[in-house]
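User: I'm new to structure prediction. If I give you an amino acid sequence, what do you actually give back? Let's try with this one:
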Amino acid sequence: MAPAQGVEVALPVLAALDHAHGHGIVHRDIKPENILISQDGVVKVADFGLARAYAESYVSQAEGTVTGTVQYLAPEQIQGEPADPRTDVYATGIVMFELLTGRPPFTGETSLSIAYQHLTEEVPAPSSVQPEVPEPLDQSVRHATASERSDRPASARSFRDEVVRAGVGLPPALRLTELAAQIPSSEYVSDERATTVTIPRALSPRRRRSRRLRIGAGLVALVMALILGAWATWVFAIPHYTRVPALGAVSVERAVQLLDAAGLHARLGTPDFSSTVASGLVIRTVPPQGLRVRTGGQILLITSKGPEVLAVPDVHNLIQADAEAALRNAGFQVNVSQRYDDTVKAGRVIDQNPEQGQQIVRGSTITLTVSRGAQPVAIPDVHGQPSAAAQTTLEGLGFQVQQKQDFSATIASGFVIGTRPPAGSMRPKGSTIVMIVSKGPRTFPMPNVVGMSKEAALAELQALGLTVNVVVIPQSPHTDQVVLTAPSAGTTVQQGDRVTIYVTQS
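Assistant: Good question. You get back a string of structure tokens that encode the predicted 3D arrangement of the chain. For your 506 residues, that looks like this:
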């Protein structure tokens, strides 16, 4: 099962356990057989036959025994310690391992051998079996299946939050509703699946060391007997297993031949779309290739219906982000190019290829052409031109023109002083250009600067746009002082006129 599907199954299971724990109930037998998925994809937790309240969760069916499904028993259950919510968290972590890899972490020929692995070994990372499992999910499963319950998530809710974070960014996979719809009416059941059993209660490492000190050789003899018994079971009672062969992109006839050679039987499932496998050939098998199964079992063959063909939606004039989302939601890839356009606003789709309504294969690439708006135009230099001619030039390039007037000593009245923005600037068509038109030189009365210093008089007259000629009068009792102007104060002058000031000097 894909990592995203494993997460989708685990989350509602943890939500159900959180609800039960909130009412003081621990399930004590979480396993795949007690997790039901309806045809509409709803996940439910069933079979609370072993569930007990926390206060009596240490009770077992008989003195010195533990009842449960050994592949999913937490170490504390095997040791006969009271169960709590973290016991269910451990079992759910084992189920998640199986969802992600296709098998439980510990297997053996006897319930005792499996129970011993729970006590002595750490649950491996799922990625050691299925390399495509991402590291965050590895860490979540390892956290939930810690041998010491104090090292696990404190509650089903905490573990659920951790799985939610680990599932962020997983590659998309079939939804449970789609997966449930593909399950054949005849359910595939592995012969390896263990049932709920009653086993002798195991001892913790501390108690085992204490008893080993007390009984010495007797314990060694018992261990040897167990080893010999396990070896005899392994040698004489082991069933025959094989692995599902690789059958991708082969014909049904060839797949049947390969399965027969492996001692397995073929059965056809519901065909599915595929953009990479030709119609009629095998896409995948259930169980998947490489999985260890018992000889004589049935393998479901899923054949290809060929690529899925979809109609291209119309995204003309949509904002680029909305157009891309619409195409990706419809099952297509998107490529974007841009160009200037005088009629379509910047950021909106001008064109699409293929066009709307065309039937193309799911996952194909659709190229969008997105407007960059009107192409910028360089503002021409209309300095010194008659205002009417300059306005015609600017409007001919697609600009809006706004006139303003200002005095100028160098540009005749009615002619253009300049523009804002200045000539050479790039602006889109339709932009407003301010054209500054001359009113001619400004006229004003000659100011009275008599009695000022030369520097002060120069500054005032030059600030008014006058050209100043300085005449020095020697042999004067005063130094650097204006005593006379030509023309005299009050006379009308205009910008650019030349005036004379007479300055004394000793």
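You can read the tokens as a compact description of the fold. Here is one thing that stands out. Residues 55-63 have pLDDT under 50 and may be disordered.
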